[in-house]
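From the shared-data thread, chain only:
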Amino acid sequence: KEMSPEERKKTTPRTIMIGGKAFATYTNAKRIVKLVNDVGAVVNTDPEVNSFLKVVFVPNYNVSVAEILIPGSELSQHISTAGMEASGTSNMKFALNGCLIVGTLDGANVEIREEIGDSNFFLFGATADRVAGLRRERERGEFRPDPRFEEAKKMIRSGAFGSYDYNPLLESLEGNSGYGKGDYFLVGYDFPSYMEAQDRVDEAYKDRKKWIKMSILSSAGSGKFSSDRTIQQYADEIWKIK
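Structure, as tokens:
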């Protein structure tokens, strides 16, 4: 939005698609779903940016929808806090379909990166061994947020994306300790690293030959995660089928 028209032309256009569900009592998850839709409503109708950026929330994301979206995706984001084991198997499905990953060293991301190679994975964020220490630093008041992170929160609070009160969601990222406070998932800490990873994505995407090579190597290296290998290993090691 702050770029000149010339600068915008040099950017990598993106359609950001986010899908998910929130159980009835997962209040903050529902606030995130609402925020994605509210941001999309503004971005997608702004003539200055909507030819370079679109934001789409995919309702009722399920296997049938995934069968369409995963083969058509070029970048998938698996950005759970390292050590939480929240990054499951959908990243394998994306990788098998030639989609590159931007992610943390969490869950299946770790194994995928080992198989496809560091240079074919856009890594960011704290590692699992640092998470507990970073939380303690936060409790001591030693964390200093990135100015861009503060600016994003300020913009949401300004009402730029509608009149809904997002303070309870934003407050979970603030303070140093306490229930629902203190940014337990280190979103603020990982934010600058995430932004840098996305800059690397933009640069890589401009080089079509490089991107396609990374995509092919990602698919080729994901063979370990095929159902054939998995079932064979179960048959051999667990079920003892002769």
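The chain has one domain: 62-238.
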